[in-house]
Structures are given as C-alpha cells and as structure tokens.
Design goal:
The chain is mostly beta strands and 182 residues long. It is built from 2 helices and 10 strands, in the order αβββββαβββββ. It has an 8-stranded antiparallel barrel with strand order 1-4-5-6-7-8-9-10. The longest helix is centred in the N-terminal third of the chain and has 18 residues. It is globular and about 45 Å long.
Length: 182
C-alpha cells in the first residue's frame, strides 16, 4: 500500500513539474536583440546586450507565465562608434539617466494551439512606459527554451530621436532569447 501511495505521489510531482510554469533565466551570450530603423531611407541595425531577468513559462500554464527582462541601453552597437555615442545620448536612449530598457509581461495567450503565442506587457525606454503586444514562438533547445519574436514601435512614443528629420517614425526590435532552466 505504501508503495502505491509513494508511486502516486511521485507521478503527481513529476506531472506537476511539467504542467506548472517553469523558471528560466535569459542567457545574454546565447541571445540576440536587434533594433532596426530606416535612417535616410536605408535600414540601420543595432544590437543590444546585457540581457537580464527572469522568465516563467510553460505552454500548459500560460496564466502563470511571466517575462521580466531588461537590456543595457548603453550596449547599443551599430558598428559605428560615433553613431553609437549619439544613440546613447539624451535625445535617443538617454543611457546615462535610464540605463535599462525593460519589458514586463501582463498576459500571454495562444489563440490557436499550433500557432504563435501573443504577449502583452509594458515596455520602458527612457523612463517612458507603454503597453505593447507582439507574437512570439518558442522551441526547446539545449535543455532550455528559445523564444523568438519581433515588435514594432512608434519611436515618438518613447521620445527617441525627437529632433531627427531623417529617421523613420517606426522601428522594430527582433528578439531571439535563449533561456536556461533554473
């Protein structure tokens, strides 16, 4: 009888492990965050790094899922030093006064079981917070999860490059975030 109870308890614990949201931490070196905007009509890309935070995720427990992540604003790298300095300045990312760009999720859904997930949350750039939403996918990889998605932003919402007449009003941020299980 005790063996049966022990087996039932063990099965319950194992099942609960896979059903409830799992804790992960983003791995900066295995992730890419790429910004893209048209500058004088030409696509200009930059990379952000210094990814930190926590991720709680399980496809079967989306109501308890959480993404609370941030990157270093000063890490912007377009491979052109003078441009990078300008992007770190007060007119753009204001990295000195607002060192982190952050995102905290509010809701994650998957309307179609075999389709992408949708995340709603608050993005904060330059101390300005706006609610955004975007689709993403997730695949298991190397004992963790690989999340991929892309968000489109209206740069004026965050007062990025307010005086610029040569930047497009819209920009995108493509995310490929590898998260290792804790």
């Amino acid at each position: 009888m005790k063996r049966i109870q022990l087996r039932i308890l063990l099965i319950f614990l194992i099942t609960t492990e896979f059903i409830s949201a799992q804790n992960y931490h983003p791995v900066d070196k295995a992730s890419t965050i790429i910004t893209s905007i048209k500058n004088v009509g030409m696509a200009t890309e930059g990379r952000l790094s210094g990814l930190e935070g926590e991720i709680r995720f399980s496809p079967s427990d989306l109501k308890n899922a959480l993404f609370s992540v941030s990157v270093s604003a000063a890490s912007i790298n377009t491979d052109i030093d003078i441009r990078d300095s300008t992007l770190r300045s007060k007119s753009y990312l204001d990295a000195e006064n607002n060192p982190r760009i952050s995102f905290v999720s509010k809701q994650i859904t998957q309307p179609i079981k075999s389709g992408p997930y949708y995340i709603k949350g608050t993005l904060t750039i330059k101390g300005i917070s706006k609610d955004i939403n975007f689709p993403f996918t997730v695949v298991p990889k190397n004992g963790g999860l690989l999340f991929s998605g892309e968000m489109r932003l209206y740069r004026h919402d965050f007062k990025i490059g307010e005086g610029s007449m040569v930047l497009s009003d819209n920009m995108s941020i493509a995310l490929t975030v590898f998260a290792q299980k804790e």
